[in-house]
Every structure is written in structure tokens, then in C-alpha cells.
Amino acid sequence: MNPHLSFFLFLILSGVCSSLSAESRDEILRKGKELYHGAGSCVACHMADGKGQKGNIPPLAGSDWLKEGSARSIAISLRGLAGPIQVNGKKYYAAMPPQLLFDDEKLAYILSYVNNAWGNQEDLVSKEEVAKARRELPQDVFTPQTLLKKFPFDKKYSKKNGTYTPTFDDTLTEITKPVIYRTFMPGASPAAFAVALPGNHYFCWDAGECRLRYVWTKGGFIKSNQAHWSSNGKPVAEFNGTPYYRARTTLLEDESFDELSKTNMEKPIYDTSQADDFPIRLKGVKETPSFLGYQLVEGYPKFRYSLGKHTITELIGMNDKKTGIVRTFTISPPTEAVLQLTPSAFASINCDQGKSKPDGTLLLSTKESSHFSVSITPMEETN
Amino acid sequence: MPGATAPQYSVTNIPAPPTKYKNFQIDGLTFLPNGKLVVCLPSGEIFFRDLKTESWELFAEGLHNPLGVIALSNSELIVTQRPELTRVRDTDGDGKADDFAVITDHFGMSGNYHEFNFTPVRDKQGNYFFALGTGSRGDGVRTITRGTFNERGRPGRMHSSAPYRGCIMKLTTEGKTIPWSYGHRTPNGLGFDLNGNLFVTDNQGDWVGSSKLFHVQKDHFYGHAASLAWKEGFEGTPVDTPVEKLAKMRSRACVVFPHGTMANSPTKVLAITPRAKMGPFTGQLLVGEMNRPRIMRVMLEKVGGELQGACVPFFDGSPLGRGCNRMDWAPDGSLFVGQTKHTWAGGEGIQQISWNGKTPFEIQNMELQEKGFKFTFTKPVNREIAAKKETWPFSRYFYEYREAYGSPRSDETKVEISAIHISQDAKTIEVELAELKAWHIHEVTVQNLTSSSGDKLTNNYIVYTLNRLLKNTPPEPLQIKVASKDSKGKKS
After folding, report:
1. Separation of alpha carbons A114 and A50, rounded Å
2. Which residue of B21, B43, B144 is in closest CB contact with A272?
3. Does B21 contact A231 at a Cβ distance shorter than 8 Å?
């Protein structure tokens, strides 16, 4: 036998036979891949391409955290890791729960796959290694501090990998479930909502006038809630984006959001008792709307308000592709209704019921008014 | 005046809730029927704490500065937040709130940061009361305001340009929201006594010479001018109204907390109930204070048909924290205190105050007599010390009623002691004064008094707000100061 070949065989046999019962490397990686992509498994957060989610879930593809042996990643998988970490110079906020559903063998398959997927070139992991760690590691969930004390990085990695002190805004970089705050927003009465939806679409809804004010997606969610929370409550929230939808009102001209953020006015531009252009008109109803509250439907806000003897609900969620918002209305008892929307050069507006006019008016019959939806999608997302 | 906390009471820190934000100020605090602690934070979060398992759970989030909470059931809270009185409910039983219903938003908001919505309380009939702070000259109003803007309420240091700012509001069982009383500045703390009388505190400032406790009665005006803009029949701009006219309209405080010595920023009012385990003080009121680590005890009596009485520090100094803002009784009868600051003097955190069941040496009560005051102590006193006139260095003064910020002590005078009578059991001492002057605050720092067994008196600084005498009360003086035109509206 060729001495090189026999050495190669020895490596394979000693490395694999002892731990994974003579399965081939391909077989191991195939099983690992299957488990990784299983429903509700690793893929849900770390994604099929192993790149994770910006600001939230760290990548596995090319991660320095997989280097220098597998002890660290075995420990994280078994005990979990609570706390923000830095991976390859970028910040990730979400916590990793302990992976209690997988036995030693399955976890070894998964970690072997992760170590060798997407261009990674690390060792295979044996079930004995996992079993030993499961026996010997402390029971507590790791914090970045306790983990890195036990499994420190070599100097060449430690600059770009470790932990950091997050701000609250860091936690809102990638929106995975709806976030609802009542806070001061520019261009709304002081009784305002700021809402962030999965897919990173954001809107301001004004309880003072029971209406959607504006929707944006770029530039991130509001920034100054932390200032609001730690201070006397004065700050008006800021956001960096430009709304792709902004409802027109007759009482505001084209004031900028900076102008509308002012808190030091001698008197207001207008007060809500003067508001006379509520965007929903019901046949024979002259009253102005009253805010009744909101319900969380799988975390999404379903606002409700009364108009005369009618109750209107407005559930605001995302479209299926998460490229824009969908407002689902009910009017009870139903009646002939007119909804005034504001045509936008930056968004396409579609209604599933009624007759839409170019000026943004939506005419609804009594039947149609009982349940209808309006989707608002930014243009560049629809192209 | 430094007091202390009697050694019969212990103060324990409660671990902070796992808030998403690094700020542990407590703006609302109560208990569920099942005994869990409820706290509201500036971040808009509401947490429950199981005191047995010592674990926190998040109940609700996203509220706008919730500053008070009532628990109607284990899954239903009433919360005051800036824009509303809100019913917060868990309707699907998963332990998290999913429905936020407006109970009332029939009041205005100019968007000024100082327009806090303080402490809901509920009477036995089911009516709610809540307290609307005025806006501050530290800022103006927002570009869009809620409710009819009223220019008459806008001028002045603390303003009321949006409906009913500076009023105590009542939400009736029929669902009507009405201004119940007027003339409040920063009414951070409503509470009932055991007889169902409603009280509210107010903070020193413009029109408020020193911080106060008011007995809240329908349609009364308590002195801060701005909210008169909303009172039916009141004409003109409140701050331009002659101060004589306002002084004649106002109702007096039942207790004044002297600024700098007793309290600068009083908070919640909480009655000592029969189930509270706090010593022999049932029926009296606790009142929190923001600026120093202090909770006061208030004892009231009806004189000439109106309530008046005394205040004394009760829990004072470390380990109690500053910023004692909200309080309630735990199922075991101990007191839980939530602390806050919102950029003012104060603190953050939760503390529990427990009593060991042994009697502290304190002034149990101070009552008006024809010629002086009767002090009742929790233990027999040292007769020899109590009998000395120099043990009782009384003084009296009043605070002016004026638009300018605060007031100096006016007409401060030492009052001679004419006689001292000590009861058979040495627990009651009648101190007769050479003169008792109505409509004046009477205070004393009892000197070197010990119990008969040698205990030092824990809290010896006590202040009685003497409005009415038992007999022949003279007409109420105005005690006003007219602002010169130049100084008007400027910081004094």
C-alpha cells in the first residue's frame, strides 16, 4: 500500500470510526443539513444561507466564533447564550436558547454541518464531545462574559468578537414581531402611537383623531424613546425615514416633520376639536370619531373607534410578502361609506372592495363596508 | 429636619424588574387580588412579581408614562397614562395583556411634558378619580393639541391651555367625565382615608407657597389659578385676576408640608388600613416625598366642620431611598414603596418596609385643644423631661398666597408655653400655648424627650396646620402678596 494512502485512511478511520460509527463524511453532513433545515430548527433564525439576521441573529457562515475548536459552539448549543455579542465586528442582539430537542448525536450532526457549510472549513464534531460537554458544563445559561471566560478568543479574533453594551435601539434593528408604543410623534396629536411591524415597516397612528398619519420603511424605527423614558417625558420621537404614505389633512399645509416636532409653541397650529376632515364618512353621520382602544391580534394592533352609533375597527398588518402594510377595516353596523385615501407618488394603494377614484376616494356599499382592506405598498418594493 | 426610621421597622430592597430599558423608576404600584405585586415603569411596561417564587413577569408594554394603577382582578388593571384612563386586560388567559380599552380620554393634552396624568383611585361606588397636572413654562405647547385650546389658561408659569389641566377629574359610574375640583398645580397623588374622604397632594411652586395636602371636595378651588379657565362662570384670564378675588375663592389645605424641612414634593396618599401591619397608627395617612428619603404620617381631625391636622416624618433617611412616589399594602401587611425621579430629585427602585410587631416610640397623635395641643405617645414618656417648657419650642408662621414661586415663612414667631399637663399613664401630654393663632402653621421639634424606659423619640419634628380653632375662629385672612407688574410671571 502506498504509505500516503494508508496514512490518509488512518486519519479517516481514527477520526470518524471512533465517534460516528463509520458513517461517511457526506452522510454526516447530509444528516446535519437535514436537521439544520428542519421545521422550527436552526434555519428559522440563522437562515438557509447561514447569514443570520442583521443586528439580531449572528451569522454562522464565516463566523469567527466557530474557529479554534468546537468546544465553544457545543457549549452555546447546549446551554444557550443570553446577551448581546459581536461577531466578525458586527453587533447581534438576540439570545440563543439552549437546544434541548437534540440528543448528543443529532447535535453533533448539526454542528458538523455548520462547521462545513457555506464555505466553513472546521472539524467534524463527535457525539462523545457533545456528551462530555453535556455532563461537565455548568447548568446555567451562558452570558457572553461567562462563556468567553471559559472559551476565550485568541488575540487575532478578540478585537472583532466578544460582547457589547446594547442600547435599546439596537434591539429594534430587525423587527421580528410588532412593537407598539404610545409616545409623542411629530405630525400627530399628543395621543399618538408609533408601531413597528415585522419586515421593518413603521407607522404613526393618532388616537387624538383616530387616523393613520404616515407610514415609512427606510431609516429605522423611532430613536428617542429612550430619552423619553429616562427624562421628564418631553422628547418628541424622531425618525430618519421619509414616509412613503402620508395622509393629507386640511389643517396642516406642508409643514416639515421638524416643524411639527416643536414643543415650544405659544399656541398650536390647530387643536383636535377643529379637525373636520376625518377620512371616513358614513351616510347620515355627522359626529366626530371617539377612540375606544385597541386589541392585540397576534401582536398586531387592531384599533377601534366609534363614529356616531357605528363602531369601526382597523387592524394594521403586513402583506404576505412583507413589502407593505394592509389596513383591514370593519364597520358595524355596516352602512354606505366613503374612505378618503391620499394618493402617493411613492406608494401603490389597492383596495379589495368598493370603487376607487383617482383622487383617493374609495366608495363602499353597505355590504362592502362590513369588511374591507386597503394595502399600501411602497413603489420600489412593487417594481 | 432629619428624622429617622424606628428600629422596629426594616427596609428591604426588592430586585428590579427585567425592563427592556435600563431605568427602574417606579411610577405605579399596587397588588393583584392573588397577591402579586404590580409595577408600572416610564418605559410603558407593567410587570407582575410573584413574591413567593420571587419571579417577574411582563404583563403589558407600550403605555405612555403610566403614573398609577388599580388592579380590578388578576387580569384587569386600570392605568392612568398620559392620554387616557385605560382598562388593560388579558382576555385570552396567556398572562399578557391583549386589550387596551379607553375608560376616558375626555380631557385635553397640549403635549407639554408637565401634563402628567396622576394616580387613579376608585371609591366604594365605583367612581374613578384622577389628577391632571398643569403644563410647565419650561416648555410651550405642541403643534397639534388635543381638546379645545383655551388661550385664557395659557399665560402664567404653570398653564392650563388644554381642557381641565390642573383639575381633579371624576369618571362617574354612568361614564361621565367631569372636572371635580380646581386649582391644582402638580397633584401627584390621590388617596382616600378610611372614611371615604378624598385627598390630594400638591407641590410647592407658583400659587403654592409650600407643598400641601387638600381634602378634595366638589367644585372647590385650591389655589393654583390656571385651571379656573375651565370653571363654569369664571370670566377673564385666571392669572390676571386680582389675587384678593382668588384668595377669597380658595379652600385651605388641611395640612401644609413646610418646604425644606418637611417635604418639597409630596406624592401618594395612602391610608393605614386595619390590615396594614405598621404599628398603632390605623386610620392615619401616609404621604410620600420625592426629594429626600422620607415617608410622612398625617393625622387629621375635624375642627369647625373641616379637616385639619398634623404631619410628622415616619420613615426617614437611609436605608429608605429617595423618590418615594407610589405605595401600597402587601398581602402580609407590609408596605411596598416605588421610587422615581423623571429628572427631578428622587431615586429608583422598590423597597419593602416591614414592622416587627413591637411598639416604636413615636408621637401617635397631635390634636387641637382650646388652649394648645394634646400629644399622645405610643409609650409612656419620661415625666421629668416632658414637664420642662424647653422641651416644647413652638413657633408659628404662615405662607403667603401669591403668584410668585413658593413663599417665605411670614410672621414667624416663637410661641411661649403656658402650662404642661401629663396624664396618669404618662402617654398623653397637653401643652398649653400663650397664644393659639388661627390660620397659622404651628410647629415644634420636641427636645430630648425619651420614653419612661429611656428610648429616644424617633421623629420629633411635627407640624400642625391650624386653620380653625375649637371656638371663636376669626374670619379667614387673605394672607396674600400682590405681585408687582415687573416681577409677574418671572422666576422668583
Report:
1. 8
2. B144
3. no
Closest CA to B422 of B388, B395, B456: B388
B221 and B93 assigned to the same domain: yes
- CB atoms A232 and B343 under 8 Å: yes
Q: Is A3 helix (H, G, I), strand (E, B) or coil?
A: helix
Neighbour tally for B167: CB within 10 Å: 27
Is A292 close to B154, i.e. CB distance below 8 A? Answer: no
Sort out which chain B residues have CB atoms less than 8 A from A261's CB and list them.
143
Instruction: Give the mutation candidate from A211, A232, A252, A297 for the B interface (greatest B CB count, under 10 A).
Output: A232
Q: ipTM value, please give it.
A: 0.95
Task: Give the dihedral of Cα atoms B79, B84, B87, B90; nearest 10 deg.
Answer: -80
Domains of chain A are 16-170 (1.10.760.10), 175-382 (no CATH)
A266·B140 Cβ contact <8 A: yes
Task: Mark whether B287 and B368 lie in a shared domain.
Answer: no
Q: Are residues B346 and B393 in the same domain?
A: no
Is the residue at B129 inside a domain?
yes
CATH of the domain at B292: 2.120.10.30
The reply to whether B270 falls in a domain is yes
User: What are the CA-CA distances from residue A356 to residues A317, A348, A381, B115 (Å)?
Assistant: 21, 12, 22, 42
How many domains does one find in chain B? 2
- Tell me the sheet residues that pair with A227: none
For residue range B228-249, list pLDDT tens digits in order.
999 999 999 999 999 999 999 9
| pLDDT greater than 50 at residue A44 | yes
Domain of B397, CATH number, reads 2.60.40.1220
- Model pLDDT for residues A52-100, shown as the tens digit of each residue: 877 778 999 999 999 989 999 999 999 999 878 999 999 887 788 889 8
Instruction: Mark which of B355, B381, B411 sits at the end of a domain.
Output: B355
Q: What is the structure's pLDDT at A229?
A: 82
Cβ neighbours of A168 in B, within 8 Å? 20-21
Contacts with A315 from chain B: Cβ below 8 Å: none
Q: Please state whether beta strands A270-271 and B144-145 pair in parallel, antiparallel, or not at all (unpaired).
A: parallel
Which residue from B86, B101, B113 is facing A233, i.e. has the nearest CB? B113
Do B159 and B295 have their domain in common? Answer: yes
Q: B13 lies in which domain range? A: 9-355
